[in-house]
Amino acid sequence: MMLAIETQDLTRWFGNLCAVDHLDLQIETGxxxxxxxxxxxxxxxTLKMLTGLLAPSSGTMRILDENLADPRQALAAxxxxxxxxxxxxxxxxxxxxxxxTFIGRMYGMPLETVRERSQELxxxxxxxxxxKKLTVEFSHGMKKKLALAAALLPNPEVLFLxxxxxxxxxxxxxxxRDTLTRCVARGATVFLTSHILEIVEKLCxxxxxxxxxxLVFQGSMAEIRQGGxxxxxxxxAVVGGDPVERQELSxxxxxx
Amino acid sequence: MNGELFKxxxxxxxxxxxxxxxxxxxxxxxxxLTVIALVGAxxxxxxxxxxxxxxxxxxxxxxxxxxxxxxxxFYLLAGAFLFFWFVGLLSEVQRxxxxxxxxxxxLPVDLRDxxxxxxxxxxxxxxxVLVVPAMIGLAGGLVRSCGPAMLLLFPLVLSFVFxxxxxxYCLRGWLVALMRNERRRRVVIATMxxxxxxxxxxxxxxxxxxxxxxxxxxxxxxxxxxxxxxxxRRAAIFAVAHGTLPPLWLPxxxxxxxxxxxxxxxxxxxxxxxxxxLGLHRAYRSTLRFYQGVSxxxxxxxxxxxxVARAGPAAAPRSRTRLVEWRLPGVPDEVAAGALACFRSLTxxxxxxxxxxxxxxxxxxxxxxxxxHDRPTxxxxxxxxxxxxxxxxxAAVVFGAWGLLINQFGFDRDxxxxxxxxxxxxxxxxxxxxxxALPFCFGFxxxxxxxxxxxxxxxxxxxxxxxxxxxxxxxxxxxxxNLTSILxxxxxxxxxxxxxxxETIPRIVLIVAAVFGPLFAAPxxxxxxxxxxxxxxxxxxxxxxxxxxxxxxxxxxxxxxALVLRPLGRLLQRRERDILSAVTTxxx
Lengths: 256, 588
Known about the structure:
The complex is a heterodimer.
Chain A: E1 3-14, E2 17-28, E3 32-36, H1 43-50, E4 58-63, E5 66-67, H2 71-78, E6 81-84, H3 96-106, H4 111-124, H5 140-152, E7 158-162, H6 170-185, E8 189-193, H7 197-203, E9 206-211, E10 214-220, H8 221-225, H9 231-239
Parallel strand pairs in A: 3-8, 3-9, 6-7, 7-8
Antiparallel strand pairs in A: 1-2, 1-4, 4-5, 9-10
Helix pairs in contact in A: 3-4
Chain B: H1 3-25, H2 27-58, H3 66-94, H4 111-123, H5 126-146, H6 153-178, H7 182-210, H8 220-244, H9 249-258, H10 263-291, H11 299-311, H12 333-348, H13 350-370, H14 379-405, H15 416-421, H16 426-456, H17 460-487, E1 491-492, E2 499-500, H18 504-516, H19 526-536, H20 542-583
Antiparallel strand pairs in B: 1-2
Helix pairs in contact in B: 1-2, 2-5, 3-5, 3-6, 3-7, 3-9, 5-6, 6-9, 6-10, 7-13, 9-10, 12-16, 13-14, 13-16, 14-16, 14-17, 16-17, 16-20, 17-20, 19-20
């Protein structure tokens, strides 16, 4: 099977801190891949390097067999990829529809297609009534939905999502989950980072866990579930999350 | 009133200021600099007070007309106070870390106490430290030198300060309520800044238009009569203005005291305190309404808004073509999309509007001032007219368009991430950005040229040549702007064009570009110089030479722009991650 995402010895240093340490990933097409890890583990840094937002210190990356080190191939890969980055990528002074039009035309899509898809995406994301609002006036959840709509607009083969469910209300979260499931069903690959293990457990077919920049586990959900374990059990086992010792705070239990 | 609470709020104010300094200046150095600034402020306050006392005391010994001196002194001090106070208002409104009641509501504090304390704490600002001690000192000195009648200056000064601070506090509360909406917030900040700048020009314009115009004098007896009636009219206007405008009551009362009239100072003090109390009362009521969630919107309007919102989904989809959907002739679709989206963004950004308005103020004031001077009529003056047209073109780019071009990705802020993610050749992105700025560049140039043509009666030949010079200079500055945008990008603070997170090299380059950037406009002076040379040497008539040379220059510059666009695109692709880290808010 063809690999959607492949990294070899991918490393990124920030001064003396090694945020990503010789990461080797191999993700096949059509997978719903959850990339997990505690805070500061290197998830977002990895995603930024894979999407071209950050240069790696060393190592190679390939998306859909395109080598990202080659500028031409990197552009070719970008044509087949949709991204919802951590800090989003919206223009403050455009409306949702204007932003989608801009993105669609930049992907070389015909204007009619852009219009139709924008209309549908805005309806699905419940943003169609916000016609006059600029994105600077959007709530965080609305911005996230717009960023996802922009990522879906060109119907990408690979979707990169950085914490897509963070700060999103349950209704929008449900819409996001359904949309992503449909994407995978049609053969797209989804690579997402998240802290919400329950959602990852429900959605993902495969999981990678990083800690301190290193890949400490990679496998399918079926492998994780063997023996009745949950994703949380496996996560805590591999990242070394011991139960927190009881602190003093005894005054909390006494009357003031 | 709780003394501990007051001390605590003062401490909070100090900590916010110190932390902000530490964050913006870096580490302990910031705190040290803040302490130095505070010590400096105290020294300045004491210096101002002592200086005021000395000036007041020495007035009779200086053999000056004491009334006139007092008048000028208090005009200056009142004007300085108003200026600094409004500048302070702007920075307070823009600052996110102020002590607002919303952050204290959950504490066991009475709202009225918090309000009064908040107001009192707000008074301790640089303008009060700098100006009020000088006013008090001057009043004290005048009491010593001119007698106890001058004691009335103390309540007059205090009422002036109370009136201004109370109403500005009220205004600030109103602005904060307005700025709950992010879009309106930025418009408010931009509008306030423009008003401040325009307000500062008013004295200049008043002076220019109340003084006799040079070269427009009327000879003989008529001149004397006209001058006398003019001065009587001005005096009448000044008297009415002093009696009716509260900010002028302080200097008016001081002058009247100098002339032995006490009532203006007494009434001015009483009126100032009353108006100040009204302002504070209004501020308190609006603050209560704001924090208790009482909407300013009228019920009818609110109901209308709800009705519109409900009608929204049922409304038919709009079929008209939006600006961002337009196609631009002769350019790829990606370029058109980038150009139109960027143009839309720029026209909606209040900070850009503010910058544009500021730049429009310049020609406006220039027109007003230059229209009062004689136009060149000599032969040498006529010979210089093509240079005036070229100068107007150069000034338009240097004062107007250059600011939009020097850091093009800074305007995108987090939106620049979109460009990095897009599968588009980077030279097309650059072209789109330049096309977005083109209407502004051409607009400025044509405006400046039209103003120069109107004032100096420029010949048509020079104006047509200048039109080609516009094309040349825009191509040069766009190339230069692309280069600086790629090599030394920097971040603009949200809602303003203030550079932030700027490293040393971009800072130096920015200064160098601001100082030496105008030199790149030099080539467009070559065609009029050639024209003048040919005309003086009697080789050829100057006008066609200027025109042909301008056309040739425009061709060369546009061709150069086109040739270097692709290499600049490759440079952009190589540096786009560095640009991203420079212009976005992200911190690794």
